[in-house]
Specification:
2 helices, about 55 residues, mainly alpha
Length: about 55
């Protein structure tokens, strides 16, 4: 987790909470860590060329 972006993201989440866009019962630090792990997982996710992923809509 990059130290330079962590406070920026936390402040953005706090602003969303203050504006009512994000629930008040969650912590900005916890959300930031969760989002970071999700993005990290997605960016490191590789597929074998023989595997196909289908999304059901």
């Amino acid at each position: 987790m990059r130290q330079d972006t962590f406070p920026i993201t936390c402040n953005a989440i706090k602003s969303g909470i203050d504006e009512g866009l994000i629930r008040r019962d969650i912590g900005p630090v916890e959300v930031n860590i969760l989002l970071t792990l999700i993005v990290k997982g997605l960016t490191e996710w590789t597929l074998d060329e023989n595997i196909h992923v289908y999304a059901k809509i």
